[in-house]
Design goal:
Barwin-like endoglucanases, about 50% strand, about 120 residues, globular
Amino acid sequence: MLRCLLRAKIHRATVTDSNIAYEGSLTIDETLLSAAGIRPYEQIMISNLNNGERFETYVIPGPKDSGVICLNGPTARKGAVGDIIIIFSYAYYAEEEIKDFFPIIIRLNGNNRMVK
């Protein structure tokens, strides 16, 4: 049996931009993606703390160390610049893989920089 578990989370990211004209996705600073182990075009779930929206999309990498978190296409209707979001990545694991499993959790400050 496989179980779906939280694999990685980017906690309290601040939306820095919104681009309704783009075809869709969430742009995330490449440094944050690397730290969380999230790959470009990977499916993610987003929860918006400001308005309660919860939605799925995929990731596109943004410039390294830029702090960019940009809602693109239809996702731009799910939040606004300045909103605080949580980004989740899930994966399926076999029972033997989850014995000592812990997700990667990246916590951010208001400038989308990692904090301990």
